[in-house]
Amino acid sequence: MTAALLSTATELHARERRGRRAVVMTMGALHEGHATLIRAAREIAGPHGEVVVTVFVNPLQFGAGEDLDRYPRTLDADVRLAGRAGADAVFAPSVDEVYPGGDPQVRISAGPMGERLEGASRPGHFDGVLTVVAKLLHLTRPDAALFGQKDAQQLALVRRMVRDLNFGIEIVAVPTAREADGLALSSRNRYLSAAERRTALALSGALFAGRDRHAAQQALAARAREVPATHARAEALDRLGESRAAADAHAVAQAPDPRGGGPAAVRAAARLVLDDAARAVPPLELDYLALVDPSDFTEIGEDFTGEAVLAVAARVGTTRLIDNLPLTFGPLGAAS
Ligand SMILES: Nc1ncnc2c1ncn2[C@@H]1O[C@H](COP(=O)(O)OP(=O)(O)OP(=O)(O)O)[C@@H](O)[C@H]1O
Ligand SMILES: CC(C)(CO)[C@@H](O)C(=O)[O-]
Ligand code: BAL
Predict the structure, then answer these.
(1) So where does beta-alanine get bound (predicted)?
(2) Within 6 Å (CB) of ligand 3, which residues are found?
(3) I want to staple 262 with a disulfide (CB 3.0 to 4.6 A). Which of 84, 92, 119, 302 is the partner?
(4) pTM beyond cutoff 0.90
(5) What are the phi and psi torsion angles at 32 (to 5°)?
(6) Cα–Cα distance, 269 to 264 (Å, whole number)
């Protein structure tokens, strides 16, 4: 499939509308992660609908000293990849087309959630993101817009904007696509040398260590729920004179108390991997590691239950990367 390349709002609006329109917004330098979003958009639009991919490197969301100038721009390859993944059109406007009056004076404010984690490291970033997302939603007028979970805070803020400001557009989340060794696909990966890429694997490595610690805790909690029954069985076996089986059951019933774990243990397991990478050559410089409530991106407490997000941001050489994993916390003593 060949995608049409459109660069002005006039060209976009001249397109005849057919069926459901699903939009994937990107900054270009498309990779397999973007292709996953475009394929999901194709599913949503259906064979009679329309998939539009936007490619725009938005100056408003870059801070001073960030990589706006060196951000990879590969429009021809992007149009080919978008077409192969099922897009009907690529909308790649110029900065003047998006901001005809220069820097917009009226902008969307991302509010308190926009000042945490990514927002704390990149002041003003999410105001810039939401302002351009709002503009691109107005320009493309989709029924549904798809965003990657890789940018979990961005996704949460877009959902919040759409709800708070009644955009009436369906926001669809797409899970993070990874390389075989775990590294989250990202346009910025192309900045990495081979040695930097090895160090960068600690981002996903730390998340997986946190996830594994979490799974081990869940297993312990499940065991702890069985302990009273196991004690009772051990005692019954004792009474029957089955001393070996009784000893086994007593041993099983000594399951460690899972209450020593929880979010703190998950953070600690992830932290160990990042501390190791900080001593690697080249080293990883941690920006943040956080285990947060995805509804507001505040740190969760030990008694938190529900969906949480383990998120990390770090610099390797001159490249700043982010990654995250969702984790579900059940109440202690109950299955999650
Ligand atoms: N690995 C991935 N898996 C799923 N979605 C992704 C992935 N990488 C990016 N996306 C999503 O694609 C959309 C466009 O993202 P963007 O163009 O910034 O790509 P990126 O690879 O994240 O770039 P960058 O390296 O600049 O962060 C966003 O919704 C983003 O979450
Ligand atoms: C949503 C977005 C296209 C807005 O510029 C950008 O932040 C991105 O690519 O994730
Ligand atoms: N994918 C998030 C866009 C940015 O880093 O500016």
Answers:
(1) 61
(2) 27, 61, 151, 154
(3) 302
(4) yes
(5) -65, -25
(6) 9
Amino acid at 270: A
The average pLDDT across 248-275 equals 79
Measured by CA distance, the residue closest to atom 9 of ligand 2 is 26
Nearest in space to 24 (alpha carbons), one of 136, 167, 157: 136
Nearest ligand atom owner, CA of 322: 1
**316 Cα: distance to centroid of ligand 1 (angstroms):** 18
Q: What was the pLDDT predicted at 242?
A: 85
Centre of ligand 2 to C-alpha 227, Å, is 50
**Residue pair 86/41 in contact by the 8 Å Cβ criterion:** yes
The total of other beta-carbon atoms located within 10 Å of residue 281's CB is 7
**pLDDT tens, position by position, 100-143:** 999 999 999 999 999 999 999 999 999 999 999 999 999 999 99
Give me the interface pTM, i.e. the ipTM: 0.98
Tell me if 58 sits within 8 A of 45, measured CB to CB. no
**Using an 8 Å Cβ cutoff, are 131 and 60 in contact?**
yes
Given CA atoms 96, 98, 99, 100 in this order, what sign does their dihedral have?
positive
For residue 152, the one-letter residue type is A
User: What are the pLDDT digits (tens) for 163-206?
Assistant: 999 999 999 999 999 999 999 999 999 999 999 999 999 999 99
Q: What angle do CA 314, 205, 222 make, to 5 degrees?
A: 125
Catalytic site positions = 34
Instruction: Provide the residue type at 284 as one letter.
Output: L
- Atom 29 (ligand 1): residue with closest C-alpha? 147
As annotated, the binding site includes 27-34, 61, 148-151, 154, 177, 185-188
Dist. CA 37 → ligand 1 center (Å): 9
Instruction: Identify the pLDDT of residue 228.
Output: 73
